[in-house]
Amino acid sequence: MPKYKIFAAIELGATRTAMKIAEVSKSKIISVIDDIKYDLPIGKETYTIGKISYENVDKICSCLEKFIRIMKEYSVDDYTCYATTAIREAVNSEYIIEQINIRTGLKVSILSNEEERFLHNKAIALKTGYFDDIIEKSAVLVDVSSGSVQISYYRDSELKFSQNISMGSLRMIEELSELKRENTDFNNLISKYIELEIDRLKKYFSFENKYEYAVFFGNHIPNIRRLCKIKEDDLLNYDSFEEAYKALLNMSFDDISYKFGIPYGEAEQILSTVLIFRSFINKKNIKIVMPEIDLTDGICVEYVEKNGYTHTKHLFRNDILSSAMYCAQKYNADKEHIEKTTEFSEQIFKALSKRYNLSKHDFMLLRVSAIFIDTGKYISLKNYRKYSEGIVKASPLIGLSKNDMDIITEIVSVGDTVLPLTKRRRLLASKLSSILSLAKALDIERNGKIISVSAALKNNELLITAQTKSDIIFEKRGFEEAKKIFEDVFGITAVLKVMRRR
Amino acid sequence: MAENFNKSENFINRELSWLDFDLRCLDEARDNKNPFFERLKFLAITCSNLDEFFMVRVASLKSMADSEYKKIKDPAGFTPEEQLRKISEKTHHMVEEQYSVYSHAIVPGLKKHGIYILKKEELDKNQISFLYDYFKEEIYPVLTPMAVDSSRPFPLIHNKTLNICAFIKKDKGEPSFATVQVPSIFSRIVELPSENNIRSFIMLEDVIEMFISELFIGFDVLCSYAYRVMRDADIPIEEDEGDDLLLEIEKNLKERERSGVIRLEVKSDIDKNLLRFLKKELDVSKEDIYKISGPIDLTVLNKIYSLKGFEDLKYKPYKPQIVPRLKNCDDIFEEIKRGDILFYHPYDSFSSIVDWIKKSAKDERVLAIKQTLYRVSSSSPIIAALSEAAENGKQVTVLVELKARFDEENNIIWARKLENAGCHVIYGLLGLKTHSKITEVVRREDDGIRRYVHLGTGNYNDITANFYTDMGILTCSKPIGEDSGAFFNMLSGFSEPPRWNKLILAPLWLRKRTEELIEREIYNALNGKEARIIAKMNSLVDPGIISLLYKASGAGVKIDLIVRGICALRAGVDGLSENITVRSIVGRYLEHTRIYYFYGGGRENIYCASADWMQRNLNKRVEIMFPIDDEKLKEQIKGVLKTQLEDNMRAHIQINGEYKKPDRRGKLPVDCQETAMLEAVNRGKIENKDDYKKIFIPKMKPDGDSE
Q1: What would the pLDDT profile of B549-558 be if each residue is shown by its tens digit?
Q2: Which residues are bridge partners to B444 per DSSP?
Q3: Is the pTM of this model over 0.90?
Q4: Across the interface, do A36 and B424 touch by the CB < 8 Å criterion?
Q5: Do A6 and B424 touch (CB under 8 A)?
Q6: What ipTM was estimated for this complex?
Q7: Which domains are present in chain A?
């Protein structure tokens, strides 16, 4: 039997539908064997009339039917099919997903922008062999799409933040189009506009001049590489980027369009993309990488991770937590308390996970909730959970789906949200929330009185053993309070056993 | 120096060049050094070539002359009208030559070998009686005579069918016209009872003429003569995105049956009034009428060629060789993994390719087979294998080019058959003909998915592969495999990949790459480096490429062109092409291989392709040019080119448009096709399959050997 799986990664994007077929194995990790793209600009409809027409759904289905044939040609073992912005933002998205399922049998999931960008980052790791090295030093990842720019900042192998700005290559041109007639130097106008937006971001997140590498990617990279004659795996420096930029400036949009067979509108977007990139070139000794990646690469990486293989030392799930912590610390989050709470939660979670079918991903949601739950106190100690809810909703948390965000919001807000949660999801939120409450109670004084905790599930009793050197009267009281909800949710009793150490 | 190479005097008109190729075939029919029966075949080929020329080229020029394009000149500077005039002169002359060869060389030669083609008046009583019985019992029941009068209009005379026209008269009435089609279900030659080891034949139309009065009882048959019409087969297919191409082509084929007559062949002694009547009814002009002094449609000679018992008058039989690496090979897939395999057909057997596809259809690990089909044989084993593969649960994708001229009907049948077997059939592409020859087999192996690819210069046709020279490779190179996957994805309507690793496709990149390769030779020559191009193809017509070759010649690039058919380039002209040689090889096998060699400053790039350097190949067809990277295979191809350039038996050398046989005085005779046959046989003897094994086999001391 072959020691590999054949996987199909399918993307239903705004401008095209794409599929990658890859061999996935422990030795090769990912080896792409086919890469199929079909131009299908469904995004236009979503952005103009708010929905996708029957004709386009029909085209998507026809294309997917062809994909299915190709999947059979490779005897594909597994697949993932994700829809992005065009379907996500269409008012008839639910209908589309069902129609696709009925006609093709394919299950399509909708990605949030944060999940999509996270997969892009994962794809970068796949395509650039030295990802671990550059994030260990410091790197900014700039992902330009037609509608927005995602900026991720890594230092010491940790994702510090990932922020989305509504300033895509197309959106910007459209916003400035009225000024086009009155300005002869449109490029300069775009540059100034970008500077304004990016400076704000740089100041807010205070990362200016703090990165050695800039990784630029997005829709137009293949054409930019072609126009600027950038070879694969080329590490550009400041001068070579400037040279490529100047070469581009010397070409009119007509030139670009005619000589390279690129539509005029896209030629404009290429320039604005390069200008966005250029605004991140902050110093002479910067090293620039411009890899060609797309979502399907990221989908492959995600699949690989699910199979327990890794192609980098870096663990991406930690990105979610590190960026969450970076955000929460802006609101004076108590890192030590969060770590303690997480440690205690983990013990309780482990004891319960098997019987109550709780996953690693669920624990990650609990951890993010633990990070944000007290952030509201930065604004007011009264009703602070309401403010925590506001903060978590507003924070740029890359890699989380809308469902994930709903569950975290539900936990952080003491379950009084008006979110349209399904019964199953609301139950999960309750479970995670009650575990977190127990754990928080055990560090209620925030002075680490309880050194460690272990938990064991025996019949209908969860026995939590706490090691401590001092008196933990408030912790006990808090525990008694928290266990009421816990017992309601899990249907078992929670017992705290205290072991005094000398 | 910005020289204008586009001047009309620098080009030879492509139509006249086509006819020159026919004349070279006619030379072979004349050449008594060829085995006698092969000369019959060459004469038959000149006839079928001319038929195709009329149906396609003359037809197209005629429609141009009648349209808004009538003033457009060809690269040689002729309007369609002028071209038609020159063609008419040349073809009339050629037909005279054909029948001169027939009467003065073929008929006497046949007699010498005991074969008599008799005329009506040469028959004895016994033979007449035999023919009467044959006519009454066999032929008569299938004949459908049609008379033309005020109530019965002139019937539809089908393209390329042989017919007999007659004037018939009842009592004292006016003569009226009648026609009857010579049925194609019977052999065109009827063998007669003969004695003394002589074999006598008579043409079927003569038999019908002898007893034609039986068809018109109560009438007097005043006179009767055979005739044949040729119709326009160049009716463009209206392709619209929403249309069903299959239905569109079927409609087009029906239209073709009724298209205008472009040529009328009649017996040279035809009654004047009968001819006038035909001319009027068929609406043909005087110059489109060909008076024939012999049997109309000389392809009938193929029937004589296939008579049994004359093997000593033909080429010695040659058995295509199994390439050494595949002899006694248990696992062709393993063998391909050891290195690319080159095939030079028909010297190397095409059966290896058919067997590979058959094996793939059965192989458990094969997941999918994809193939492009342009022309296939009438009972193609490849089609059968593809159907079997689909039935075995493999994913089979086949592009059947419905627009392959004269094979449309055949291809529709195959396409439907494949579809019924469960194959995914693509009926060609909108506005383009898919002429590329590629097969991909996707196999799931222990260490991953592997693609096996065959690329060729000729069709997947097991019959023509026996007499067309073509090249192909079997490879499992990953870069080619990736390209092949992307190519089939493109045929399915998906986007072009961002880059191609190895394959060069028309109409996207082939012209550009070819021009770049020639320009690179020019650059090297101008910088005092060695520069050389050898290009072997069927036809060279593209004005852009020709101009660039003139430029290269001027720069000092040495260019040798081996162009079997049409060549619009003038070779060996001082100040234009003194560094260019053109040779056409006409021999036992039809030279069909396309090989392009560029010295490349010593890197020596060799490509094989499905495309000629013609506008239609570079602009309107999906073609593939593929590099030969394996050094050993490159050497083999270089050897083929070398022998072709040394040939002084089959080659005709062109200088400024005129073709001549090379001067052989003082030189050893070289026949490139004979050499290729010999080499293929010798390769089997010499080449060791183990050459490709990546292990050392230590020789052990034999038992009992004292040394």
Answers
A1: 999 999 999 9
A2: B449
A3: no
A4: no
A5: no
A6: 0.76
A7: 5-111 (3.30.420.40), 129-290 (3.30.420.150), 317-500 (1.10.3210.10)
